[in-house]
Structure of Non-homologous end joining protein Ku:
Amino acid sequence: MRAIWKGAIAFGLVNVPVKVYTATEDHDISLHQVHNADGGRIRYQRRCEVCSEIVDYEDIDKAYEDDGRTVVLSREELKSIPAESSHEIDVVQFVPAGQLDPMMFEKSYYLEPDSKSPKAYVLLRRALEDTDRVAIVQFALRDKTRLGALRIRGDVLVLQALLWADEVREASFPSLDATIRISAQEREMSAALVDSMAADFEPDQFTDDYQLQLRQLIEAKLEKGESLDTEETFGVAAAETGSGEVIDLMEALKRSLEKKRGGGAVSADEPGAPAAKPTAKSAAKAAPKTASRAPAKAAPRTAAKAAGTKAAASKPAARSARKEA
């Protein structure tokens, strides 16, 4: 890894020199745009609207427009902003980890000690361990002043960039204001379904199905060219998009439980009957399948598979069921 930034954590009067590394990476297959008529590469140019010339990146400044007036800000002027030139990660307070809303989490960075003696680094790490707290910090990186959380991952300090409070939008949906009656039977059934799908989270069990199938499509296209048959490549016809609407919630819950319990019927008189605990192996298999599909669509698709009649299953759901089978 290559360090993207160097600075120091200001922990009271203690300075902890560190190097900053990006902790995550993108493995998505990179695709570029082409003209569908002749396959020519589509490229974007930085063209000036005044002189029509293509402008090199080093000759570009930034500007702000306000009520018809424009101010141009040069790179030197932007670099003169005091916060931009700061290389200090300033610890402002220590808070319980549970108080951090995951909605605020942005990008993660590893911090490596950048001194001959990493004693101050280890001291800060131990302080976070002993107090079971997270350090809230402020720092500047890439033309932006940021809020962050300093926490521990193994033996490494991790800087988690956070969104500012006003960057998290409020959720205001009139549909949630309606009074919805959920019966005790529905709650018991849904709790039983959750219990039947319970497992410990193991990230390495999950795969990016889209990227794997995109790679499969690319390799098939390289081999067969324009004669490619996508249905033959993937073994099934492309699924149509369903509405995801649950017509009979109780029926969907019952059919879902039947599937998880190995096909055993669920009595309407015993909706909250304890679900059989899955083995570690079956739980591991169930978890990736559950996580790779949106919950709102999973229930109707499962219901369609087990219903057994055309009246109970929509066309999109039936196709999805055949795919799962």
Notes: The domain at 5-25+81-165 is CATH 2.40.290.10 (Ku70; Chain: A; Domain 2).
